[in-house]
Amino acid sequence: MIKAAVLGATGYAGIELVRLLTTHPEVQIQVLGSKSFAGQKISDVYQNLRHILELECTELDLDAVAKCDVAFTALPHGASKSVIPSLLDRGLKVIDLSGDYRYDDPAVYEAWYGEPHSSPELLAESVYGLCELHREQIKTARLIGNPGCYTTCSILGAAPLLAHKLADTKNIIVDAKSGVTGAGRGLGLAYHFCECTENTKAYKIATHRHTSEIEQELSHIAGEPLMLSFTPHLIPQKRGILATIYMNLTKPCTTEEVAALYKDYYKDEFFIRVKDAGELPETKHVAGSNFVDIGVCVDRRLNRAVIVSAIDNIVKGAAGQAIQNMNLLFGLDEKTGLAAAGFYL
Amino acid sequence: MIKAAVLGATGYAGIELVRLLTTHPEVQIQVLGSKSFAGQKISDVYQNLRHILELECTELDLDAVAKCDVAFTALPHGASKSVIPSLLDRGLKVIDLSGDYRYDDPAVYEAWYGEPHSSPELLAESVYGLCELHREQIKTARLIGNPGCYTTCSILGAAPLLAHKLADTKNIIVDAKSGVTGAGRGLGLAYHFCECTENTKAYKIATHRHTSEIEQELSHIAGEPLMLSFTPHLIPQKRGILATIYMNLTKPCTTEEVAALYKDYYKDEFFIRVKDAGELPETKHVAGSNFVDIGVCVDRRLNRAVIVSAIDNIVKGAAGQAIQNMNLLFGLDEKTGLAAAGFYL
Amino acid sequence: MIKAAVLGATGYAGIELVRLLTTHPEVQIQVLGSKSFAGQKISDVYQNLRHILELECTELDLDAVAKCDVAFTALPHGASKSVIPSLLDRGLKVIDLSGDYRYDDPAVYEAWYGEPHSSPELLAESVYGLCELHREQIKTARLIGNPGCYTTCSILGAAPLLAHKLADTKNIIVDAKSGVTGAGRGLGLAYHFCECTENTKAYKIATHRHTSEIEQELSHIAGEPLMLSFTPHLIPQKRGILATIYMNLTKPCTTEEVAALYKDYYKDEFFIRVKDAGELPETKHVAGSNFVDIGVCVDRRLNRAVIVSAIDNIVKGAAGQAIQNMNLLFGLDEKTGLAAAGFYL
Amino acid sequence: MIKAAVLGATGYAGIELVRLLTTHPEVQIQVLGSKSFAGQKISDVYQNLRHILELECTELDLDAVAKCDVAFTALPHGASKSVIPSLLDRGLKVIDLSGDYRYDDPAVYEAWYGEPHSSPELLAESVYGLCELHREQIKTARLIGNPGCYTTCSILGAAPLLAHKLADTKNIIVDAKSGVTGAGRGLGLAYHFCECTENTKAYKIATHRHTSEIEQELSHIAGEPLMLSFTPHLIPQKRGILATIYMNLTKPCTTEEVAALYKDYYKDEFFIRVKDAGELPETKHVAGSNFVDIGVCVDRRLNRAVIVSAIDNIVKGAAGQAIQNMNLLFGLDEKTGLAAAGFYL
């Protein structure tokens, strides 16, 4: 059994990790770190866990964590950086859900996060944990920068066309819609039920940090530096991201050809489900699961592809992907503990 | 492996059965019966199942079903009755999710369903599948009448006080609130999103069929025939029933005493979680799980107990309970395939 | 034109007052008091008001308020009491939306609010502003205690049967379901979108302060002191309260007879719409309007009446009723500015 | 008083017309046409209208309609065409909410609707009822083609940049999100509450008919024929469209400059509210109102403008705009009956 610590266990990404890990056959949760709820049982904070997991949440205790094999750090931005070096020193594998270890280039981090990176040498060592793209590197890593939710959905949706040089890199637009769990459990007027329900809005246009992550990975795939528009929207549901991606084609293609190309590109990926031509993804098809659903459509009038990809932001966009990374790190079948269907209802 | 048929697989109870059975370690789904979607893959009808279960739905084919060990019948009221005798003849165990096999007395069925029962001898043989109350009988049954959703929630909430003769049987009121999955997948203006969302209403006051089921079981427990008020309400959410039960106490008690009594009554039940005094259940604590959460409160001014119980109507109120029954029928640990925490989010 | 001040204008009751007053033909809003948003335009805080009302919010300035004819105080509990005497001294009519001036007896206030009343002489003078019950007294009052939302819905639903001595006063149960605006705009984990949506729960069983208000008014109507069970529930919608009221009948009646009795009791009331036998209210029929919809049903088996009443908690349960009171205070037609249909959608 | 007929009164656009007209000071509703509910009172079909409007719905009766001054036709696509010529012959003004009379060129209609237009001479006469763009023509028209919901939102959002030749006409993308009322009241599995809630999806990519309407109007404004990507999405709320519009700038601009340009372009328009730089629209700011809220943002890295516009799809996108057109046709102040703030809650 893999002994696991979840630090930041009572946020939404953390608790989804806990929920998924309680059904993982190879993992035993040993430590639940929570600043806000230290001293309380996790099953008192999240009563859905009663009779399932009655472990007490604790303040960060490095000695206790050090007895684990892996630590998931789902801490607020910045907090991860101060803890992770100690965990690595003590021999743990670390899967970090913050934005701190996702970049190749500290300058990009600095440009989008507004401060120099505090441990550039670890940044250099860390592997970007988008399993479908970096599987081999992940297997041998010590430190994983688990990707952002918007980024997972956007990168996997755009990758095949770019890899085949079929998309003009100058006019890529990603219009993404996210459920409210993406904003976390912190209080804020914008997340009050009465302010959120029956409401849709865009936010952080042209400035959302995930833009830089998407650009980094898609530039690799395209083989050239690219920039794109990324617009996040908040929609009145809990789970789910739908990214609608617009790319001008470099040569005429049909929807069927693009669908075939996507199916081939992802043919070995259990968690990626490419739709047939004429089908489109919906967030309810992926909610609660680690799947990425992708549908494609070519607008022949404009010679433009419209790709739609859907994930559950707190599963494939956070907790599920973290477990997928853990499975790779520990030599397990990548699907272990993650092969359940989405809720649909 | 238990070979299972799900008849009526594409309704909401049916598809939740399918979802749960795909993670059950001892079951293989062999037949998916669906009149409306015969010839289509279940994963085309419910695309959350892609890469998980790609079985084709079929019209009822008794020979194919006969190769199974158990059939779950989630058919419209009345349709069950015409199929079940044949299935029993061929040696299957049958777990019926309709109202057809839930009654001790055919006259009660006739009074509430408005027609004579078509197979009173099977009704006499069938066992009421509320596992916590009829566990031993269930183990050796051929035919289980799986309880209704409102009834499961109401009966388990009221049982301990009645069993202890602490409740006046004359003034019991059950005010229940249900999510919309309880109404099924059939079309109807009342279930159009724009008519349902931001709306709450009562319906079928004093006439809902589940009243008779609740009265039957609580009369057994109380040791005397009783009648009660049952009022169902439709609330704007998918999953969940919350039943608020009012009972006049036959002698003064405190909330703490009643909570202790409930905890004792259900002390061996994994799926029943009695709250401490001061805590109350919420439907999000049980959504997606087979748990029943019960909170109690005594109004000392009035010497009246207010009991609140919560379930997921399509899990403990339908599909999950059906699997719990199957586990009992086949000698498995009752929790097998059902021990996951609720979604919370 | 009536010059009006709204104190506490940026809470949900306050802003609904503002929304309704902007279409009232006889009112001009002069002062918008808001501690949290002083110095900001109301149309910046609530951008739906752009091009409609661009007034700046201010800290409490008694001299400015004193130029008005009427003040609506939608302040947090307790804050009202410190301001209202000054307003009355300066000659304003005051309609208070807090619980401070709703009681006949300071001892009841003290018992339920946990502290002595600070101005019992004003409490003695104030009129309980449930227009349908106290219309004549309201017309000549200086200070109105605007009723609570649950109380309006419950009292009007139960009154006719009690007035006719047809209900046993010993076993009255009010099971009420409220949308989330009832909790106000203050932040709290329980009101985070992800915690509220897809969730229903009971709260404050046997202890909610509105119980005392309902008991006070229904005791008057019944002509004898009565106590009852009141259970509030939170449901995942913004607007609306549905109260389901159970009363044992003192003599056998039919649903038709009770419906006729209710229609007669409220025959002159524009804002009360009694349903025909067989019809039931829904919150979407009243959302956005000042109407109270009431449906009745008699359970002949139990000789028990089940009454269902529905209001919009922030209109008839707060802002709309406050305006109805203002109309009475200033000799206007009671419907002025309030005769619009609900939103339905 | 203007005597008005609403044909198709019981669909969502129709009933919103009815709701708004009941508060219009210059209109009396004389005829409510409804095939599905003929013989029933509108207040029985939509019980929010009780005590407000108790008129009976009727089958189409041209003689009764002929006594009116104006007819609003909110009929299914195609049905309008068979009725409207008769109404015009009898001297009524007609405001048609279908797609039948929105095109300059019958060939465009035929291309997108898949059949020849049945009355091209009326199509030639009809005026496209987007008031802010065609106000003078509307005033003297007999027949108004009331614009689609997506189109109103998209055209008004894109117009100013195109009018100033600041946008490249080759790479315009409109990514629009609509609430479910946009799909109407007809039954369909996709609109079942349990299928819609907690779900977002795109549909009809590159093929939605509103594309042609948007292209027609924006081509006029740009002074050159243009084509664009239009992608509709369904989001889990009742009211509201948010359109996110991407346009490459033909010369560098700042957000502030674009905001100033928009404010100037719409400086005389009551119903268009341009946000300051840094502010973005939300559907809850416009829900229930006839306003169009527009926010702008320039992505300097990409020299691309991102424009976000929001409307209530059944008000400014249907019923409200129809009334705005009526006000123009009858020489009333354009705001009459439409100057209320949105609901916000």
Automatic annotation (TrEMBL), chains A, B, C, D:
Keyword Oxidoreductase: yes
First-level EC class: oxidoreductase
Residue ranges constituting the Semialdehyde dehydrogenase NAD-binding domain according to the UniProt record: 3-141
Protein location: Cytoplasm
A GO term for molecular function: NADP+ binding
GO biological process annotation, one example: L-arginine biosynthetic process
Keywords: Amino-acid biosynthesis, Arginine biosynthesis, Cytoplasm, NADP, Oxidoreductase
Primary location class: cytoplasm
Reactions listed under catalytic activity: N-acetyl-L-glutamate 5-semialdehyde + phosphate + NADP(+) = N-acetyl-L-glutamyl 5-phosphate + NADPH + H(+)
EC number: 1.2.1.38
GO cellular component: cytoplasm
InterPro entries registered for this protein in UniProt: AGPR, AGPR_AS, AGPR_dimerisation_dom, AGPR_type-1, NAD(P)-bd_dom_sf, Semialdehyde_DH_NAD-bd
Keyword Amino-acid biosynthesis assigned: yes
One Pfam family per UniProt: Semialdhyde_dh
Biological pathway: Amino-acid biosynthesis; L-arginine biosynthesis; N(2)-acetyl-L-ornithine from L-glutamate: step 3/4
Active-site residues annotated for this sequence: 149
Function: Catalyzes the NADPH-dependent reduction of N-acetyl-5-glutamyl phosphate to yield N-acetyl-L-glutamate 5-semialdehyde.
Family the entry assigns: Belongs to the NAGSA dehydrogenase family. Type 1 subfamily.
Name of protein: N-acetyl-gamma-glutamyl-phosphate reductase
Organism: Candidatus Avimonoglobus intestinipullorum
